[in-house]
Amino acid sequence: MPARKGPCTTREVEMGKRMIVDVQNHMLPLEFIAEAFGAGIIDTAAMPPMFRWRGISMSAPPDFTDVELHLKVCREAGVTHVLAHQGMLLTVASEVLGLSTVETARRHNETVARLIEPYRDFVFPYGYLRPHDGKAAVKEAERCIAEFGFHGLGIDASYGSTGRQFLHTPETYEFWEFVNERRVPVYVHPAMLAYGWEFMDCYKLDETVARPNETALSVSLMILSGLFDRFPQIRIILAHMGGSFTMCLPRLQFAHRLGYEGFLEYQKARNERDPMEYARENIYVDTMGFHPPGIRHAIEVYGIDHVLLGTDYGPLPISPKEHIDIITGEMGLSREEQDKILGLNAKELFDLPDPA
Fold first, then answer.
1. Reported pTM
2. Which residue has the higher pLDDT, 206 or 285?
3. Does residue 7 contact residue 1 with C-beta atoms inside 8 Å?
4. Is residue 14 assigned to a domain?
5. Residue 166's domain spans which residues?
6. So what's the pLDDT on residue 45?
7. In this structure, is residue 246 part of a structural domain?
8. Mean residue pLDDT across the chain
9. What is the CATH number of the domain that holds 36?
10. Least enclosed by CB within 10 Å: which of 5, 217, 220, 275?
């Protein structure tokens, strides 16, 4: 990563263009989906086209698959930096293609690098990989940063459609050691086949319930296993205001307070400090959710410097402007607080350039 610069001030932003960074933004044209993930993952006969796998469906509207339309809507909303997250499909894509997650991630990142080349001053992708792939994951992370110029990495909250691999196990340590030493920010998004998906194949429950709960379980395991004590410089960004984790956090606190006397050895938590300390030091969250009380709660829990604008625009075809208006309007935040959430926090975290 390049040497980190200090954040620009509110006055510096006002003198030019207001910096608005969308840290959760998804776009991928149909032809690139077929190339990177395999044509079998997308049902183009449906309208809009749909991702379908193992009984789970996910919409791919034009806002997601038409890059020019997508970027036009973002610009009109005032977004200055699109942090493009094309992930959450690695497990499914590997199954569809019959390839390892290492090779699938390589294809994905190469595809995205070509896709965004004409928009380098506007679109800043995450490099996508599976932490459990050890040295291969580290090699791909290095390639994404050094060769492709990506400013961060994106991973799923868990991997596997039948078995399940979370982010705290020893297989991930080489990846986390790299992230810890290089201080690379890592965006954590629930998988398409989120934990519990087998029971949530209707009513969009996989999206609305399984995904935020997967985030809660995954990050809780990271804290309680002692991962943040082993790698204290890790900085992760959680989608959707932290999912259910934000509400689970006080329960982790009282469990820590009561201790684990009488529990079997493997059942005892390994974290050295109050779980809230990790939340405020190692964890950032985005604002996706259309819920001002939830954003206020996130600010109170994680701190104003750890809350970032995120819109889920693309598969969710609602303009980023609606999210921005929540921050600048009904939240009642000061101009300085607005600027931090809208862009300055992300600028510092991801070492982003000033608006073009």
1. 0.92
2. 285
3. no
4. no
5. 19-350
6. 82
7. yes
8. 91
9. 3.20.20.140
10. 5
